[in-house]
Amino acid sequence: MKLTFLGAGDGFSVGQGHNSALLEFGGTNLCIDFPESNHAALHKLGLELNRVENVFVTHLHEDHINGLQKLAFYHGVYPLKGKPRLFVHEELLGDLWDALRHGLAYSTRGPKELSDFFEVVPVQEAFELEGQRFELVRTVHIPGMISFGLLCAPYFYFSGDTRFDLGQIEEAAAKAKVLFYECHMQPYNLPSHTSLDELLTLPEELQRRTVLMHYLDDYLDAEKREAFHNAHALRLAELLQAYEF
Ligand SMILES: O=c1ccn([C@@H]2O[C@H](COP(=O)(O)O)[C@@H](O)[C@H]2O)c(=O)[nH]1
C-alpha cells in the first residue's frame, strides 16, 4: 500500500494543491477526494486522468470535488479501462449530483446522469476494494454538513476536513499506524478545522504518528518548514510525498 499526496493545501492553496491523496495497492488505485489540482499532480506522477480507477468523496466542499467534472469528461474522451468507480456515502449522492449536474447533465448525445460517467457505489459504513476494507468515519466539520474521514486499517487514518475530535483520534490511532490529520495552521482558531494548538495536546507518541495536511501555503516556505519540524514531533505532509505501508 502506497499513499502519495496529490495535494496537501487548504481550500485557498495555489502552491501545493488542494488536499487529496492517491492510494496504490493490489493492482488498482483510489483517490481520496478529487480537486481540480489533482490533474497536474497526477500528470507529474506520469498518470493521466484515465488511469484513475476509484475515487472516494469525503464531503462536498468544492476544493474536494471540483476536479470530478474534468475526470468524468476525460474518461469519456480518452477511454482506457472503463468508467472510474465513485465511492460516495449514500446521503451525499443526491447533493453531489446537484453540484455536478450543471456541467455534466447536458451532452451532444442527449441527457446524462452521474452513472453515465462513473460506476457509482453508494456506501453506508464501509467499502472493500481488492481485499482492503475502508471504513467511513463521520467527522465534525460544519454543522449540518455530512463529512467523513477514511480508516484504512492497519495502515492509516485520513481525517478529511474536521474539527479536533480527541475520541475519533484515539479510536483511529488504536487501529492505524499513521494519522493523516487536517490542521489549518492559522495563527487563530477556526470553527470548522483543527488548530495546531489542539493537536499539540495529544500525547507525544500520537504526535509522532501524525502527519498534518490541509494547511495554508505559508508553510511551503523552507525555513518555516524546517523550524516547524525542529520544534515539533508532528510532520507536515508535502505535495507528491509518498508513504509506503
Ligand atoms: O483556513 C482556511 C479556512 C477555511 N477554509 C475553507 O473555507 C470554507 C469555509 O470555511 P469556514 O471555516 O466554514 O468559514 C471551507 O471549505 C473550509 O475548508 C480553508 O480551506 N482554509
Give structural notes.
With 245 residues, the chain is an alpha/beta fold. The protein has a single domain, classed as Ribonuclease Z/Hydroxyacylglutathione hydrolase-like (Metallo-beta-lactamase, Chain A). Helix content is 27%, strand content 26%. It has helices spanning 38-44, 62-65, 68-77, 93-104, 114-117, 166-175, 196-199, 204-208, 222-231; strands at 2-7, 20-25, 28-32, 54-56, 85-89, 119-123, 126-129, 132-138, 148-152, 156-158, 178-182, 210-213, 235-236, 242-244. The chain has a seven-stranded mixed β-sheet with strand order 6-5-4-3-2-1-14. It has a seven-stranded mixed β-sheet with strand order 7-8-9-10-11-12-13. The protein is globular, with a radius of gyration of 17 Å. The structure holds the ligand O=c1ccn([C@@H]2O[C@H](COP(=O)(O)O)[C@@H](O)[C@H]2O)c(=O)[nH]1. Residues 10-12, 61, 63, 142, 161, 184, 186, 190-192, 216 line the site of the ligand O=c1ccn([C@@H]2O[C@H](COP(=O)(O)O)[C@@H](O)[C@H]2O)c(=O)[nH]1. It catalyses: 3',5'-cyclic UMP + H2O = UMP + H(+); 3',5'-cyclic CMP + H2O = CMP + H(+). Counteracts the endogenous Pycsar antiviral defense system. Phosphodiesterase that enables metal-dependent hydrolysis of host cyclic nucleotide Pycsar defense signals such as cCMP and cUMP. This is Beta-lactamase domain-containing protein.
